[in-house]
Amino acid sequence: MASAAHTTRRVTITPLDEKVAVLEDVPRESQYALKFVGAAIANMASSAICNPTDIVKVRQQLRRQTPGAQGNAFWSVGVEMARKEGIMSLMGGLSASMVREVVYSGIRMGTYEYFKDKLHAMSKGALSREGLLLKIGAASIAATIGSALANPADLVKVRMQAYYPDGSPYRNMRHAFASIYQEGATLATSKGASTLAGGLGALYRGVEATTIRGIVLSATQICSYDQIKQSLKKRGMMQEGVPLHLVASAFAGLFCSITSNPVDVVKVRLMNDKKHEYKGTFDCVRQIMVKEGVFGFYKGFGMCWARLGTHTILTFLIFERIRYLFGIEAM
After folding, report:
1. Which domains occur in the chain, in start order?
2. Which terminus of the chain, N or C, has fewer Cβ atoms within 10 Å?
């Protein structure tokens, strides 16, 4: 009789229950490592798919004509690129983008729950797991670290995606890294400064804007996804699964596009500022405001939403699936 009962329980166990059971046998440190790997893979896959929209967005943000001008419409920029530079130009900067995602997104998304756990423990429960304050704090810390470390790869990606009338000066990603480092080292030498500091300074140009963007994007993207999922499940409106992941990620993609686009415009301008027209982040903000107006900060928004919205949906769908395959509970 006992044997029959035991058999019945085994038959009614669902695959998700089995995964949760496996989770209990996985050390917490290993779970964090797997989350980092899953986040990196998910973001790399999404970025590869969305690269054409990303490069069009960068080209739009680097243009300085009146916002809304027909020549700056995303379809015009995309068609012009395909016609003049070839269809493969839409995949420009892909190698640098992959490196960036491993560092930037692997850290900002892969360590989000690690910092949630740590902050919750440090506060001794004062910061509720259901509260936004804990989520925003965790996302901000993870994004700050990821953005700062990934700035060189991010800068190289922007440089490789920019338009050059006489053709790109970079043969590949390694050449781009070396060229940008050498530019900074040469400039530093002419001023009597350290070549190492000059080279690293060139690779870290725009790091303030990069970090601010990373914090803003992560705080809205990751936290809104987490909060929306939690609210929908708590109210019994949806259960854990692909439909819930799709709805939550769609809203998260819209929110983070709205909040991050202005900072993204500043970041792209600074990273591509070879002539040093801007004295820094705040000077760049001032010049855009004076010369292009408030809407200058929303150049490329349509493509930003198309790119970041799609990227967000794909990333969370893939990330949740990878977690399931790794035997890790849903985010």
Report:
1. 25-169+211-326 (1.50.40.10)
2. N
